[in-house]
Amino acid sequence: MMTLTPKTLSPFSFLCNPIPKHQNQNSKYTIVTQYSDSSSKLTFNSNCESEFQTERGLKFDIGETFFRHESATGRDLGVLAAALYKRSKGKLRVLDALCGCGIRSLRYLIEAEADFVLANDANDDNRKVITENLSQVESSSGDDPRWAVTLSDANRIMTECYLKRDFFDLIDIDSFGSDSSFLRSAINALKLDGLLYVTSTDGFSSGGRRPQQTLAAYGAYVRPMPYSNELGLRMLIGGAVRVASVLGYRVTPLFSYYSYHGPIFRVMLRVNRGKLPDNRNYGFISYCHNCGSSQEYSWAELGRMSCPCSDSKVSKSLVVSGPLWTGPLHDTVYITEMLHLAEEWGWAGSGSGTDLDKLLNQMVAESDPRLPFGYTKLDEVASRAKVNSPPLRAVMSTLEKEGYAASRSHIESNAIKTNCSMAGCIRIAKQLQQCSSAE
């Protein structure tokens, strides 16, 4: 079997890379050849069938790896963030910890112009498809490698990089379920002010159906609430906040993205030294089934939770989830920069009407600091008001005229984010119904 091992990254023999077309004598890659017999050759998964796909003009083979076309938007967001980092810092090293077929790694190399990408996957059967996809990019630039492939457990790779002080600017962890075991090793392997792109696909937990699971994975006890998909993002951020705090770091979400397919919760975090002051933006969220109102509680308010509709008495209609991230899901300036870059690349703007264009503009609107956590479903408003579901634009227009902040939610199509109470939304829905009837 033949493997290629870059001396700068790992002493392990599972690190592989295709032989460059023109081997530089000063290359940091060493060709290590081991023969079991004189006719030994490179071996790959012979059962893997080629299936070529195209994304943003890049052609790649998915083989038998798990791949979703619908996740392209999440990859777009990651590439935009990576490109902004490269422009601001002048250098970009990426670790794609669970790379699958390698399309994210390929896009980081070509579109974000990463200086180096380490593509890792635990499945040895994916060796051929990953290396062939990445071979579209020269494996080295002068004496410096552009990319390498490892086939090992993600935590092992990240821990090894940390121990060797081989830190990365961006670490992308596209994991399944609510596996939060990667957080600690990823934060350790990340440079200060680096980017950590984390994932959850556990919709049952965000929906409050597995509170013990969320408690184990993210340190949060999550109950059923109307805005469960936003809770999925907040429990993911909160889990990262908790782990980072133990290590002496603080994390700040740059953007938070939900997609119904899967479902998928993806968050881009910036990691720096220090802790959140006084647990700011890390607390508890309540929802009252009786009146539909939501409130935020700090740790100091534990034991004193109540809803105004129950005259400050303990109410069985009140459910509480937490601790969770209660702060902004997006950074306004950062999202705006991503939107401008997407327009520069032709991915958004100029009346394109693309999904990415709509998403980034919605995220900009959602990042209004006046907007609280959660969102209000218009169907719930209509049910409580006992009227037909009001038009979303009409509700938003009325809210803005009355001085409230309001935006659409990228998470729920027929919902709004607003600092108006449920009672206020019910009043507006009734007014709109009366106006409609009068016409």
UniProtKB/TrEMBL annotation:
InterPro entries membership: SAM-dependent_MTases_sf (IPR029063), Trm1 (IPR002905), tRNA_met_Trm1_C (IPR042296)
Catalytic reaction equation(s): guanosine(26) in tRNA + 2 S-adenosyl-L-methionine = N(2)-dimethylguanosine(26) in tRNA + 2 S-adenosyl-L-homocysteine + 2 H(+)
Alphabetical keyword list: Methyltransferase, RNA-binding, S-adenosyl-L-methionine, Transferase, tRNA processing, tRNA-binding
Upper taxonomic lineage: Eukaryota, Viridiplantae, Streptophyta, Embryophyta, Tracheophyta
Signal peptide coordinates: none
Family: Belongs to the class I-like SAM-binding methyltransferase superfamily. Trm1 family.
Listed Pfam families: TRM
EC class (word): transferase
Entry's EC annotation: 2.1.1.216
Organism name: Prunus armeniaca
Protein name: tRNA (guanine(26)-N(2))-dimethyltransferase
Classification via PROSITE patterns: SAM_MT_TRM1 (PS51626)
GO annotation, cellular component aspect: nucleus
Gene3D superfamilies: N2,N2-dimethylguanosine tRNA methyltransferase, C-terminal domain, Vaccinia Virus protein VP39
Keyword Coiled coil recorded: no
Keyword tRNA-binding: yes
GO molecular function: tRNA (guanine(26)-N2)-dimethyltransferase activity; tRNA binding
GO BP annotations listed: tRNA N2-guanine methylation
